């Protein structure tokens, strides 16, 4: 199948997807180009989850698909602070976060490419997802995690049989350690490896179908490395190319104000931002000080007519309490986007349709949530 190719954003080199490349030989990021646009007229009626869109995913052979039942998450309505909006329940994914979409496609393609061993770095959920899919595929998996990672996420990775390397210091230091080790295995990085975004783009396809073949007006998403945000951007752009929707939803990227390099860049109008110093946040899943695709995230937000916003720790805590009171239990990082809806919605028109996500399950961070409850 020649429908997909790897393409370097800087030197424009094209690389065949039969090769397991996660970065261009010039050192730059690779993206995946899909030559044909998605045609939603001939989707298999009897197939659910992300592989329903198999014709638009870069895995050639059915037998290489590694699946745990990812995708097909419910879209629920929520009323918060006098505003109604819809939320995609990504915490219902097999490992408890949306990262399963990306890991399923990345590991399936790695299997197709004959890879036996993968290396990843993660603040938790990407490591859990990669470990689970690697286990399902019978691959070895090593994950570099920052020392401060939630214990529940470490237990989850261990249960899937992953080798865990605790790296003292920041999230960035874990990434550097993984990069240094990637020579001895395939770097299944969710931020570098473009295959991951081919998985996360299915959230756009699902929303399109769940909303009766339309797109939302406003999409409010968390942004650390931007893997969900860029996936949604890719998916909706493909739908535009296919003539299925007229325009992109306005994409709002929500960060923690303790670690908001994208907001700093938006204000300074330059990437990377100058004099940016990250601070500690309870939103461990988006504590990313220098996202490798930062420039792309800003492009996506700008092109869509959206904005980067940041929420304070106390807004994240309030969102957790408000969601719990409505029966939803999500981890602090997932409460960030809901707090973001609270920030953004006063400036929106009442008829505009807003969609956000519950990006990760509360059971992954029950210690951190216990501390929030004790304080409240
Ligand atoms: C990974 C993650 C995010 C942020 O996603 P990025 O791809 O880093 O932007 C948000 N919430 C949860 C629960 C996550 O696991
Ligand atoms: Zn290049």
Please tell me about this protein's structure.
The chain is an alpha/beta fold and 376 residues long. The protein is 35% helix and 17% strand. The chain is built from twelve helices and 13 strands. β4 (75-80) and β5 (83-88) form a beta hairpin. The N and C termini lie far apart (56 Å). The model has no long low-confidence stretch (mean pLDDT 95).
Task: Compose a concise summary of this entry.
This protein is of the alpha/beta class and 376 residues long. It is 35% helix and 17% strand. The radius of gyration is 19 Å and the shape is globular.
List keywords for this structure.
binds pyridoxal-5'-phosphate; 12 helices; single chain; 35% helix; 376 residues; binds zinc ion
How much strand?
15-25%
The coarse silhouette is globular
Residue-averaged pLDDT: 95
End-to-end CA span:
56 Å
H and E order: EEEEEHEHEHEHEHHEHEHHEHHEH
Numbering strands along the chain, what is their spatial order in the largest sheet? Answer: 4-5-13-10-11-12
Distinct helical segment count: 12
Largest sheet: 6 strands, mixed
Write down how many β-strands occur, each being a DSSP E stretch of 2 or more residues.
Answer: 13
- Give unreliable regions as ranges: none
What structural class is derived from the secondary structure elements?
alpha/beta
Helix content: 25-40%
Radius of gyration, in Å, reads 19 Å
Bound molecules: pyridoxal-5'-phosphate, zinc ion
């Amino acid at each position: 199948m020649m429908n997909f190719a790897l393409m370097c954003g800087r030197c424009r080199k094209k690389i065949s997807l039969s090769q397991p490349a996660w970065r261009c030989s010039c050192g730059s990021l690779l993206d995946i180009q899909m030559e044909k646009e998605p045609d939603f007229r001939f989707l298999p009626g009897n197939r659910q989850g992300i592989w329903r869109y198999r014709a638009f995913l870069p895995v050639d052979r059915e037998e290489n698909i590694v699946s745990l039942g990812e995708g097909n998450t419910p879209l629920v309505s929520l009323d918060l602070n006098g505003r109604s909006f819809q939320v995609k329940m990504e915490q219902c994914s097999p490992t408890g976060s949306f990262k399963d979409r990306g890991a399923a496609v990345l590991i399936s393609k790695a299997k197709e490419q004959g890879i036996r061993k993968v290396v990843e770095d993660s603040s938790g959920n990407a490591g859990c997802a990669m470990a689970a899919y690697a286990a399902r595929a019978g691959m070895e998996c090593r994950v570099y995690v920052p020392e401060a990672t939630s214990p529940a996420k470490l237990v989850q990775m261990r249960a899937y049989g992953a080798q865990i390397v605790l790296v003292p210091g920041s999230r960035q230091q874990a990434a550097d350690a993984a990069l240094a080790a990637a020579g001895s295995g395939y770097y299944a990085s969710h931020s570098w490896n473009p295959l991951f975004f081919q998985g996360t783009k299915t959230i756009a396809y699902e929303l399109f179908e769940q909303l009766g073949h339309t797109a939302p007006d406003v999409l409010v998403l968390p942004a650390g490395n931007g893997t969900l945000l860029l996936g949604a951007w890719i998916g909706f752009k493909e739908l535009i190319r296919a003539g299925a929707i007229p325009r992109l939803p306005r994409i709002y990227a929500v960060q923690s104000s303790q670690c908001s390099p994208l907001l700093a860049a938006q204000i300074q109008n330059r990437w990377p931002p100058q004099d940016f110093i990250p601070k500690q946040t309870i939103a461990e899943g988006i504590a990313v000080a220098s996202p490798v695709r930062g420039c792309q995230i800003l492009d996506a937000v700008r092109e869509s007519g959206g904005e980067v916003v940041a929420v304070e720790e106390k807004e994240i805590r309030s969102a957790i309490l408000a969601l719990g009171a409505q029966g939803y239990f999500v981890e602090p990082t997932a409460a960030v986007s809901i707090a973001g809806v609270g920030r953004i919605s006063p400036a929106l028109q009442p008829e505009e349709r807003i969609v956000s996500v519950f990006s990760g399950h509360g059971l992954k961070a029950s210690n951190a949530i216990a501390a929030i409850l004790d304080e409240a």
